[in-house]
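Entry 14: structure prediction run for Phosphopantetheine adenylyltransferase. Input pasted below.
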Amino acid sequence: MGNIAVCPGSFDPITNGHLDIIKRGAKVFDKVYVCVLNNSSKQPLFSVEERCDLIKEVTSHIPNVVVESYKGLLMDYANEKNAQAILRGLRAVSDFEYEMQITSMNRVLDDTIETFFMMTNNQYSFLSSSIVKEIAKYKGDISELVPNAVERALKHKFMVE
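Run finished. Output C-alpha cells:
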C-alpha cells in the first residue's frame, strides 16, 4: 500500500508556498494526493478544473504526486485513497489555531488518519493565494510568488498584458 498522504486545499491559485510543501511532502511520502476542495466560505477566481489543471502542470515533474478534486469531506477522500496522513502547510503562528480546529474535527471524523504539519520555507511565510490575486489584479509583479503557468493564468483572468 505504501505511505500515502493527502495534501488538501482550495489552491486558488497554487503558489510557490503550496508547491514547496507538495515537493517536500513528496520526498517524505510514497504518494501524495493533492486534493482540490471547494471552500464554501470563499468565492474562487479559478474553477476547480482550472485549479487542477494548473497544479497538474506545475507538479508534472514529481512522479509520486496525483492531483484530483473532491466534493465532500476530506476524511472520506483520504479513506478512499487509503491515506495514512493529511499533509498541511503552516506559514505562521496565526495559521495554527485554524489548523488545530480543522485537525481536531478531522480526528473526530476518523482518528486513524494522522495530520502532519510542515512549516513553509521562510521565503514563503507571508504568501497566500489571496495576496497573490490582489497583487495580480492591480498588475503587480507576482513572478517570484507563483509558478510561470499560474502567473500567465492570473494575467489572463485579469486581462493584464
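Notes: The first helix runs from residue 16 to 28. Will compare against the previous run tomorrow.
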